[in-house]
Amino acid sequence: MSVFGAEGEVDWSAERYARDAGFVAELARPLVDLLDPRPGERVLDLGCGDGRLSAVLAARGARVVGIDLSPDMVAAARARGLDARRMDAAELDFEAAFDAVFSNAALHWMGARMDAVLAGVYRALVPGGRFVGEMGGFGNIAAILTAILAVLDRRGIDARPHLPWTFPTAEAWRRRLGAHGFRVARVESIPRPTRLEAGMAAWLDLFAADLLALAGPAARAAVRDEIVELLAPALRDGDGYWYADYVRLRFVARRPEEEKA
Ligand code: BEZ
User: Fold this and answer.
1) In the beta sheet, which residues pair with residue 242?
2) Ligand 1, from 7, 24, 246, 249: best to mutate by most atoms within 8 Å of Cβ?
3) So what's the pLDDT on residue 18?
4) Closest approach atom of ligand 1 to CA 248
């Protein structure tokens, strides 16, 4: 998923994403059920990626608009016959246009501009409209993150200022949504170790490319391999399968029917 321009060197190629991160959409079916889109409802899919989930929503009868910043992802979503648009999630251009805004695995990339994103989502919803989403929550990829920081630190590189993700606690997310005027119906934190069929090196290549790049082109591969080695005792099981230590933050909030004057 790609929603605004802070992705550094992340390769948001739709083909690669489908190959190495197909699980992202696969595991989001409970979120689709939580949204429960009704025929004819207008739904905005924020950070729609290649449109796999937008297509599921459309198959349930919703009129879906997907937005993503990556031209390649938008092209892949359009190839599915979807209304996909290249748009910055922090500059949403909609006024009371949707019955629901849906977002899976995209919001944690938007930390620096989250207030602009949430203000835009609020504006995009009709009064009474719902915002249903899932993102990384507090503790998400804690082991992976620690290994990345540790291996780069061995080379004298402090990667902390470059971390592209934000993983709020349920309490902090509830407050954040509330500060933007949403009525928060639920926020839950769900630990979900996630099997990586393509392995940890592929995960790092796809999602942590900008952090690996801090090591420079000559050291990049060695840094990645050291991270993989450091993680093996914690995140590779006895059968050799890799897991990402994911924690999902799942939420439902509404724009109130009646707003305070
Ligand atoms: C996540 O879905 O939690 C995630 C994906 C890529 C990078 C960081 C977190």
Assistant:
1) 196, 236
2) 246
3) 74
4) 3
Closest ligand 1 atom number to CA of residue 165: 8
The predicted pLDDT at position 11 comes to 56
Whether the pLDDT of residue 113 is over 50: the answer is yes
pLDDT value at residue 207: 95
Distance (Å, whole) CA 108 – CA 114 = 9
Q: Where are the domains of the chain?
A: 14-140+165-196+247-254
Mean pLDDT of the chain: 93
- Long-range CB pairs of 142-150 (<8 Å, 24+ gap) are 142/245, 143/231, 143/234, 143/235, 143/245, 144/200, 144/203, 144/204, 144/208, 144/227, 144/231, 144/235, 144/244, 144/245, 147/227, 147/230, 147/231, 148/204, 148/208, 148/211, 148/227, 150/230
Q: How confident is the model at residue 6 (pLDDT cuts 50, 70, 90)?
A: very low
Is 184 within 8 Å of 175 (Cβ atoms)? no
C-alpha 62/C-alpha 99 separation (Å) is 10
The CATH number corresponding to 14-140+165-196+247-254 among 1.10.357.140, 2.60.40.1910, 3.40.50.150, 3.40.50.2000 equals 3.40.50.150
pLDDT band at 14 (very low <50, low <70, confident <90, very high): confident
Is the whole-model pTM more than 0.85? yes
Residue 165, ligand 1, Cβ within 6 A: yes
